[in-house]
Amino acid sequence: MRYFIVDDDPASRTMLKNIIIDGDLGVVIGEAESGASGLQTILTINPDVVLIDLLMPELDGIETIELLGKKGFKGQFIMISQIENKEMVGEAYEKGIEFFIHKPINRVEVQSILKKTAEQFRLRGSLLTIQESLANIGLVNQMKRQPSVKEIVLTILNDMGIIGEAGSDDIIAIIEFLMSQEHKVSQLPPLKDLYEAVSKKQGFADSDINKESKAMEQRIRRTLLTATNNLASLGAIDYTNHEFEYYAPRYFDFQEIRKQMIFIQEGKEEVVRIKINSKKFLQVLYLETLEKYNQN
């Protein structure tokens, strides 16, 4: 693996370089003290992975990643951060960051994350080789199949461990309803209207729609509560867990999951009151489903 380090702290750059070399994790082919000074070099030497600090002068980590992406850079990024600003962390995830290294730098954490990144890199390379081989014998188009909306949603719910929960069928029905609309919306209507529209489409009588929509609301809230507990448990054990890193800040209020993580880590047994934002969850799930459906 070929690494490039961008960090305005020389000590951090040296520490990261030593960890990579001592652990036989690859080679460091370049470094820079800011995104502005490292931008062109990264594009020229095209490293496999860029380890980049979140907060830097001139160009911060997120701005640098955006510019590199616009200029066609396809390598992976690992964000280095000493802050826990959930909005900035969430924005980093949206830009494609898959892993974080937390400051102060810990050798074990760095080695673990770089090994995971290397494994992902190898798997992607193997997948690309397989795809190219299939294309050469004309099988790719035969094997491609448009996944259904339900399949896409089930995959996401499975990652959160909530397939089989009472509200999972309601969640699928809502996304299928939204995807069936001729004019796709970017913002969801009020949840009450959405629940009633789905209940009506499912054939409930007008006299029962209000009752069913309220029941649907409660089933979904209980299901999302289970999802927050599942993700908090994953994060409490392994902060770099892929499902935790991806879903916790995107689909939920991260501060609420963090609260549950602390209770788990401290071994407390009392009930934790978690705020559930159903609209945020459904909004993000709908947009991600729409994106994945249009990619196929």
UniProtKB/TrEMBL annotation:
One of its GO terms (biological process) is phosphorelay signal transduction system. Residues 2-118 form the Response regulatory domain. One of its GO terms (molecular function) is kinase activity. InterPro entries: CheY-like_superfamily (IPR011006), Sig_transdc_resp-reg_receiver (IPR001789), ST_Response_Regulator (IPR052048), YcbB (IPR013972). Keywords: Kinase, Phosphoprotein, Transferase. The modification 4-aspartylphosphate is found at D53. It comes from the Bacteria. SMART domains: REC. This is Histidine kinase.
